[in-house]
Inverse folding.
């Protein structure tokens, strides 16, 4: 075979191979995108099925938040995440939700904040069922420090004021309540510092520093109901103590829900609800719960023993 024919044949085989490879990749891409598209269609169908007609206005300036005998299952969940839970919190009160991992604390908090609709039971704000009320008007009255809060790649100022007009006095107050003021003072450009290292002159904060920013964001909203889902998990001892005092202070005028694994923190609260497998099994103040000798007592003793074991 002449050399030119061999060269052309090798080149032809390589070209065919590459084209075949990219064809297979494109087909695979189409298949993958098709799956996402199916998800989108299912999601749109599900939301339009749940869209409610003409919603009523939400009660303004709410002072009493309650869930009454609610049960809730996540879509596709094998069992109910929350069963027959009743609890309430008023302005001027700080309550705690405690319990082991997966007991339903975060789910109850989201239900109380009207982020989910219960399968059974009622969520009432100032005695009005929230299911028929306009969601935005409800959510405008809630500040939520989520367990998995978002680290926005924006400036420190925007991270705190997110979605609200900037007011310097309120910004300073929210920062100092959350202990974020010390974080901001340590930054070269203060409130203007960009909190993402992927950008020029951007910085990255530590986990505890981020947690303070998330708390400041919730305080800045200055809402009637503040829900804090493990807000002190990454804070140092001094930070945690200061934060709990700030929460207590905030609870003079607002309703505060604190989710915590550190049972000692329940002493700062008016009462705690103990969740076991999605049910409230005990409720009351710290001393009352200890005297019940139930799940709270058992978990508290476990934590206390850990400290006692330190030489
Ligand atoms: N988005 C979700 N989708 C499906 N199931 C979920 C979802 N979130 C939570 N669950 C389930 O609901 C139950 C309660 O979860 P939840 O997050 O409320 O517990 P928790 O008490 O807040 O736990 P932790 O102390 O770990 O934060 C768990 O069994 C969990 O598997
Ligand atoms: Mg949780």
């Amino acid at each position: 075979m002449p050399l030119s024919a061999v060269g052309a044949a090798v080149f032809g085989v390589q070209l065919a191979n590459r084209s075949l490879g990219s064809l297979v990749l494109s087909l695979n891409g189409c298949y993958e995108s098709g799956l996402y598209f199916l998800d989108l269609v299912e999601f749109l169908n599900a939301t339009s099925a749940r869209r409610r007609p003409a919603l009523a206005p939400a009660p303004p300036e709410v002072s009493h938040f309650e869930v009454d005998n609610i049960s809730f299952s996540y879509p596709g969940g094998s069992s109910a995440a929350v069963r027959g839970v009743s609890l309430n919190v008023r302005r001027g009160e700080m309550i705690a939700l405690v319990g082991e991992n997966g007991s339903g604390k975060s789910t109850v908090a989201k239900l109380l904040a009207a982020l989910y609709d219960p399968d059974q039971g009622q969520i009432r704000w100032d005695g009005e069922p929230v299911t028929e009320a306009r969601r935005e008007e409800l959510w405008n009255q809630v500040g939520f420090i989520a367990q998995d809060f978002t680290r926005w790649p924006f400036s420190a100022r925007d991270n705190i004021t997110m979605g609200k007009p900037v007011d310097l006095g309120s910004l300073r107050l929210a920062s100092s309540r959350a202990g974020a003021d010390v974080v901001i003072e340590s930054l070269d450009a203060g409130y203007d510092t960009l909190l993402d290292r992927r950008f020029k002159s951007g910085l990255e904060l530590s986990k505890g520093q981020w947690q303070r920013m998330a708390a400041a964001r919730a305080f800045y909203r200055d809402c009637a109901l503040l829900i804090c889902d493990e807000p002190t998990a990454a804070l140092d001892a001094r930070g945690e103590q200061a934060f709990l005092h700030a929460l207590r202070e905030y609870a003079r005028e607002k309703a505060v829900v604190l989710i915590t694994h550190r049972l000692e923190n329940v002493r700062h609260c008016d009462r705690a609800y103990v969740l076991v497998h999605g049910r409230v099994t005990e409720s009351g103040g710290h001393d009352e719960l200890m005297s019940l000798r139930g799940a709270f007592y058992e978990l508290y003793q476990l934590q206390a023993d850990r400290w006692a074991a330190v030489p």
